[in-house]
Amino acid sequence: MFYTIDILGTIAFAISGVLVAFNKKMDLFGILIIAFVTAVGGGTLRDLLIGDTPVSWMTDITYTYVILGAAIFAIIFRSKINYLRTSLFLFDTIGIGLYTLVGIEKGLNAELHPIICIALGTMTASFGGVIRDILCNEIPVIFRKEIYATACILGGITYFLLREFPIKDNYVFVVAGIVVIVVRLLAVKFKIALPNIYSKDHV
Amino acid sequence: MFYTIDILGTIAFAISGVLVAFNKKMDLFGILIIAFVTAVGGGTLRDLLIGDTPVSWMTDITYTYVILGAAIFAIIFRSKINYLRTSLFLFDTIGIGLYTLVGIEKGLNAELHPIICIALGTMTASFGGVIRDILCNEIPVIFRKEIYATACILGGITYFLLREFPIKDNYVFVVAGIVVIVVRLLAVKFKIALPNIYSKDHV
Amino acid sequence: MFYTIDILGTIAFAISGVLVAFNKKMDLFGILIIAFVTAVGGGTLRDLLIGDTPVSWMTDITYTYVILGAAIFAIIFRSKINYLRTSLFLFDTIGIGLYTLVGIEKGLNAELHPIICIALGTMTASFGGVIRDILCNEIPVIFRKEIYATACILGGITYFLLREFPIKDNYVFVVAGIVVIVVRLLAVKFKIALPNIYSKDHV
């Protein structure tokens, strides 16, 4: 089941990459690279930093097929992709819940400090988009208008708090993932953002 | 002989980096870094992703000398470099043929899937230019007007097809390399590009 | 004592990151990431290239606390940070002296060529700023107006020259570090830059 979520998240991330690449008038090759980077960039950075190489998408060819398939689908049906907006948003949100926890567990396996594990989880979920934006010559959107990271961090804190109690690992995993998803849904629904640190008259 | 080609490719890549850095009015240090990154960036990314560290240019000092020499040459004779345009284009083209195959063989050594090997080959040949463009604050030219990647991919496919037949490894290597070179030369000569996916009236 | 210098350098780098992120109107998350990247980016790249993973800031949580503390301090007192300009410049300068030597010694441990070791030292001291500028969508300032690298390179050369003599390792380390610091201070005081390679009438 986790694998299914992973694949759905990968599809949503890849399609979001295609849409950004379209806006930049990239050619077919550029679009595929951006789809790839958006989908696997966060996990790749995580694997590089902890030294878990070859990085994960290289050793499981399924990701490559899924990303290529999603990208080609998005290119062909790009005028209709708006109809899928809600589904893609849900896949994407569930995906970041899972990616956060995958990153945390990889950090734990490498015996890293809980704060570093949470950083790795947040990175897994959000740095694909950061690398995508750098390749598209934009300041990463997540640095200006935070859309992911707080949800990932709160989910990560939940994970480590729950581990202090005698709860089965699977439940801890699921509850923390749900925290990520719910925080993100609420933030989008109620337009909650990080406190503005710039005084109004300067903006 | 492969080593000679490698060095000629490195020279061509380094000089192309110098020329881009000139246009950005970089200082001496910036120019050297861009020359370096253009020449070894693709191989460095490949080595990082498969975990082959220290990365290759760090363990063979020849690359450093060649890149420094080529960069200083290009800085001193920059007003005359146009006379070398054809030679540089040939070095560059032969270089990507070789780099593609070096990437593929490194992927095979790491026991990766043929598609991942071809991706590593293409990355070796083309991502030096991608990193160069990012450092110069441009959208990578290869994502907008594809100039390399199709040739690398076709050469890679040739490589894996030929391996199915009882042909000596050396011949497979040479023929696949020639495919990369010929496809690239034809593409440049006949101005062949990837199919345009944007409708005319929107461009 | 080296650890204290390291921490002071980390503080200065983190605060410089916060100030750049402010100018880009980043939100709280973006500011923290830029502070982090500026402080540890150079060492992270070095560790990745030589394959020393998990990278160093992941295995010593102190860096995370120091960077978070420095960033929050800089955010709260940002209107007053000008009063600290001289202290921060000194921390920063002492920091690059130390970082250069840490990079060199890591290169020696990996049995790399002296030139590669000096490159690693320079990278440790200066590539945090490069990654910061890329994330902020700027051409790295160090490529246009060199502010660090020459000092790092001269300090590195001093280090390897002194090692030829029967001098205690600690002294070599300290003298080379002082060379970095003095060259940088003199360069800033007397506005020394790399020779301009662009003819006046073209600029």
From TrEMBL, chains A, B, C:
The organism's superkingdom is given as: Bacteria
Q: What is this protein called?
A: Uncharacterized membrane protein YeiH
- Keyword RNA-binding (UniProt): no
What family does the entry list? Belongs to the UPF0126 family.
Q: Where is this protein chiefly located? A: membrane
Where in the cell is the protein located?
Answer: Cell membrane
Q: Does the keyword Membrane apply?
A: yes
- The regions listed as transmembrane in this protein's record are 6-22, 29-49, 55-76, 83-101, 113-135, 147-165, 171-190
Cross-referenced Pfam families, in alphabetical order? Answer: Gly_transporter (PF03458)
Coiled-coil stretches noted in the UniProt entry, renumbered to this chain: none
Name a GO CC annotation attached to this entry: plasma membrane
Looking at the record, the residues that make up the Glycine transporter domain are 4-78, 90-163
**Upper taxonomic lineage:** Bacteria, Pseudomonadati, Bacteroidota, Flavobacteriia, Flavobacteriales
Q: Which UniProt keywords apply?
A: Cell membrane, Membrane, Transmembrane, Transmembrane helix
Question: How is the protein disposed in the membrane?
Answer: Multi-pass membrane protein
